[in-house]
Amino acid sequence: MIAVVLIGERLLFWWRVHQQQRRFMMTVLAAYREDPQGAIAYLKTKPNLPIARIFLAALILPEPTPAEFSLALETAAQGELPILKRFNTVFETIITASPLLGLLGTILGLMRTFVNLNLGAQTLFQTAGVTRGIAEALISTAAGLIIAIVTLLFANLFRGLARRQTILIQTAGGQLELLYRRNYRIPAMPQYEQQEGDAR
């Protein structure tokens, strides 16, 4: 049940990101070339997208140097990684524990079946009961394996999506940084400092 809920949450998250993020990123980069302030305002309309939060972390800084801008992008991107990889540890635990719990259920079921077995008075009814008991015990192992396999498939899917999204974020961050460097102007030196330098 836990696995179903977590898988549903991740599917909803990745569906939303996949539907919006790439197109949103291209729109923001195009807008930033023409109107940086307009691009910032547009970013604020999508606070649920990782790329919007990353871009905003750098763009809202007051007149950062290119190095500061790059550091802000990198720091924000690192902060988004736990969100992209959310529940990975839980999925790994479910994948590992489910078969073991199923096997434990099977062993306990078999023990219960054999304890109730009366070897001195075997009847057709008792034999059928033993067979049914063994079958029910094996269901635990089968259920554990099914849960582990299904969770493994979705966990691998989510890991792949997280890797692709990380590459997309790095690429988009690099493009935004290039645009910022092209538009960056070194602040003019104050007049009195310039005069002191000329005097020396």
- What separation lies between the terminal Cα atoms? 76 Å
Mean pLDDT: 84
Number of self-contained structural domains: 1
What is the number of E strands?
0
User: What count of helical segments does DSSP give?
Assistant: 7
**Any idea what the radius of gyration is?**
30 Å
Strand content: under 5%
Shape: rod-shaped
Residue windows where pLDDT falls under 50 for at least 5 positions: none
Largest sheet: none
Q: H/E element string?
A: HHHHHHH
Helix content: over 70%
Classify the secondary structure makeup into a structural class: mainly alpha
Q: Which features would summarize this protein structure in a list?
A:
200 residues; mainly alpha; 7 helices; rod-shaped
How does this model look, in words?
This protein has one domain (1-181). Helices cover 84% and strands 0% of the residues. It has helices at residues 2-34, 36-43, 50-59, 66-84, 88-115, 124-183, 191-199.
Quick synopsis:
The protein is mainly α.
SSE topology sketch:
Elements lengths: L1 H33 L1 H8 L6 H10 L6 H19 L3 H28 L8 H60 L7 H9 L1
Helix pairs in contact: 1-2, 1-6, 3-4, 3-6, 4-6, 5-6
